[in-house]
Amino acid sequence: MNMDKVVCECFGVTNGQVKEAVDNGATTLEEVTEATGAGTGCGACNDDLQRLVDFFTTERDS
Fold it and tell me: Where does residue 35 rank: exposed (0-12), middle (13-18), buried (19+ CB within 10 A)?
């Protein structure tokens, strides 16, 4: 996965920043949104953000 890929165009949040938020304890979309600001603009990225949160929390817990 490209960690430099922007997932939230409104705030320029990358896959890597979402992973960092999860690594720092965020376990829900809401917590990642609070940590990164992603998803708080137009909201178009929320489905992608949720998939990333699910992926990174599963990866972290493995």
Answer: middle
